[in-house]
Design brief:
Helix 2 runs antiparallel to helix 3 (about 90-115) and helix 5 (about 195-215) runs antiparallel to helix 6. This protein has 6 helices and 2 strands, in the order E-E-H-H-H-H-H-H. It has helices at about 25-50, 60-85, 90-115, 125-190, 195-215, 220-240; strands at about 10-15, 15-20.
Length: about 260
């Protein structure tokens, strides 16, 4: 289920708060409210009237649906705002209690406004209370599912940052150590084999040029990594007097 705090992702400003939405999520939200209303109305009709369609004709059904749907929509939208925006900094049982009290208050205001707009209309307080409970519980469940998903994403991001930090710290330790050993080897090779020294300097400079050019990048071409690996193996092989042999396969299958 998508995050309901993102259910309205355009920039609506309420004081200093923003209520985000995008059109697709708004469409799903509206369809969800409509679907819920018809399910609840059918349930209410069966409980209160013992029949699914207790209307004399289609006109009466239409008037009843419209007049009852508007307060339900208002209740859902206001509860959504209360739960996801007004008290989203609260947590645990404190938030649930505040949200529940706010939901009851919203129900009372909506019912009073309904009677003021429709003087001859009647309010079934028990039915509207059941509706408010269903709406409140549904939005609370969605809110806590969203909060759980958010905490999981944040934990994964923190783990990734910790691994990156450990990798960078290890690389910072290995690079100077490797360079120090390589320079010692070069010092020894110069007096023994001039051509070998030139090959070693070329491989070492190519390797470090690659390290400097790719530093900070999250992704590089596999072909470039394979070339770097080849240079690294050559340097290690010369360090260990050609006693190290590494067979690198698959490079010929790489595309530019």
């Amino acid at each position: 289920m998508s995050d309901l705090s993102d259910a309205l992702r355009h920039e609506f400003t309420f004081g200093v708060k923003r209520f985000p939405y995008n059109r697709r999520q708004l469409l799903f939200f509206c369809l969800g409210v409509i679907g819920y209303y018809f399910l609840f109305q059918a349930f209410y009709n069966m409980v209160a009237y013992r029949e699914l369609f207790p209307y004399r004709d289609a006109a009466e059904a239409f008037r009843g649906i419209v007049s009852n749907f508007i307060p339900v929509l208002v209740l859902v939208v206001v509860d959504l705002f209360v739960i996801f925006v007004c008290f989203n900094k609260q947590s645990g049982s404190r938030k649930i209690i505040i949200d529940a009290v706010s939901s009851v208050f919203v129900l009372f205001v909506v019912n009073v406004a309904y009677m003021a707009v429709i003087p001859n209309g009647t309010i079934d307080w028990a039915g509207t209370m059941f509706n408010a409970i269903f709406v409140f519980l549904g939005l609370e469940v969605i809110y806590y599912l969203q909060s759980f998903r958010k905490s999981v994403r944040e934990a994964e991001a923190q783990r990734a940052l910790a691994l990156q930090y450990q990798y960078d710290a290890l690389k910072a330790q290995v690079n100077p150590h490797f360079l120090f050993n390589s320079l010692n080897l070069l010092y020894s090779l110069i007096s023994l084999d001039t051509e070998k020294s030139k090959e070693f300097v070329l491989a070492l400079s190519t390797m470090y040029r690659y390290i400097m050019s790719q530093q900070g990048k999250e992704m590089v071409l596999l072909r470039m990594e394979m070339d770097f690996l080849q240079n690294y193996v050559e340097v290690l092989s010369m360090r260990y007097l050609n006693q190290l042999h590494v067979d690198i396969r698959g490079k010929e299958n790489l595309k530019d």
